[in-house]
Amino acid sequence: GDGDGDGGSRTRQVEIGMTLETSGKFVVSVFDERDPEHREKRRRYRKEKALLLEDKDGTVLEDEVEDYYEEEEERSACSGTEIGLVVFCVILFAVYVAARVAFNDVEF
């Protein structure tokens, strides 16, 4: 493992949030407590929210955390879609090449 005292396990525990907006958009958000980048983004988000909501005496409501997850996942969802499209294009190109080779009856 990475020396976290987890008994050599290669698994991580993450928080997952799911949101269904009224428009029908379904958003899945992931937060990894061990990821320094995730922790920093959460800290910045909470700090910004605290400035906007001073009457909340510094406590973070669950809705605010879900908004953070949604913001993070929307950025990741785009890259996931792009990866899927690239894989689809590669497969489609492979089928095209296979079809050209299989049906090659060009006579000279």
Explain what the structure shows.
The protein has 108 residues and is of the alpha+beta class. 54% of the residues lie in helices and 13% in strands. Strands 1-2 form a two-stranded antiparallel ribbon. Strand 1 (14-20) and strand 2 (26-32) form a beta hairpin. It is elongated and about 80 Å long. The protein starts with 13 loop residues before the first strand and ends in a 6-residue tail after the last helix. 5% of the residues are buried.
Topology (elements, then pairings):
Blueprint lengths: L13 E7 L5 E7 L3 H17 L9 H41 L6
Antiparallel strand pairs: 1-2
In short:
This protein has helices at 36-52, 62-102, and strands at residues 14-20, 26-32. With 108 residues, the protein is an alpha+beta fold.
Tags for this model:
single chain; 108 residues; alpha+beta; 2 strands
Percent strand equals 5-15%
Q: What share of the residues lie within helices?
A: 40-55%
- What is the strand arrangement across the widest sheet? 1-2
Strand pairing plus helix content: what structural class?
alpha+beta
Q: Please write the string of helix (H) and strand (E) elements.
A: EEHH
Major sheet attributes: 2 strands, antiparallel
Number of helices: 2
Distance between the termini: 62 Å
The coarse silhouette is elongated
Residue-averaged pLDDT:
75
Rg is 23 Å
The low-pLDDT segments are: none
- Total strand count, please? 2
